[in-house]
Specification:
about 140 residues; about 75% helix; about 5% strand
């Protein structure tokens, strides 16, 4: 799921810190806005906007963090509104709902652990590419 690569150049200390902060931003936002799934995306997007003209290493990691938060938003939002429809409408809890909530829970835990790991490794100057998001980031973010 996670690929540790050598970047095209050795990032400086300030670059590694900013790149690592792009992942930490989503964790801080998770704690601050837990019931609302869009808070993480907004915080990560604001950090991305502040660093979009930075070095390639920083831009690349800000973009990867933003892409991962976008997919997390989609999954969490669907689960949130499905839960709301069960609580306040005529929907009932089904096996599909339980399977989806378990999937979302597992996806969130894996993303949380991967984010912490990536923030630590990126802070040390390593280039960490996530499966799917790394390839997509390579298409979007050019040197």
């Amino acid at each position: 799921m996670i690929l540790l690569n050598k970047f095209s150049y050795d990032p400086g200390e300030h670059e590694a810190e900013k790149a690592s902060n792009s992942y930490l931003m989503s964790l801080i936002a998770l704690i601050a806005g837990l019931p609302l799934p869009i808070i993480n995306l907004i915080a990560t997007f604001i950090f991305y906007l502040g660093n979009r003209k930075g070095t390639y290493f920083v831009r690349w990691h800000c973009t990867q963090a933003l892409l991962s938060q976008f997919s997390l938003l989609l999954m969490n939002s669907f689960g949130f509104w499905w839960t709301m429809s069960i609580l306040f409408a005529s929907e009932t809890i089904s096996s599909n709902y339980i399977a989806y909530i378990i999937t979302v829970f597992v996806f969130n835990i894996v993303e949380f652990v991967a984010t912490i790991y990536t923030a630590i490794r990126t802070r040390k100057g390593f280039h960490v590419e996530w499966w799917f998001y790394g390839n997509l980031t390579n298409l979007i973010c050019k040197p």
